[in-house]
Specification:
Length: about 90
Amino acid sequence: MTFRVGQKVVCIKGGTTLVNGFVPITGSVYTIRGFFLGPVAGEPRVLLAEYIHPEKFEGVEIGWNALRFRPVVERKTSISVFEAMLTKTGVDA
């Protein structure tokens, strides 16, 4: 999965352990401020704008496993399809 800085993501698997009072909550939206491969297993990690992790591992901020997040899908809502349905049936608004 590819992330970019500034992208909105939704947590799909919240944590169970509080890290200095913070844990990502399932269903909550966060903003990506960085990403990297983890130093231990090379797993993709993300840094969230809403939380700066005070702990470091070998001088690198500890991020969250990227598999716990997915991009937010933003859909532009339009009522034009419903207006067209009214026009086709002859119903006046």
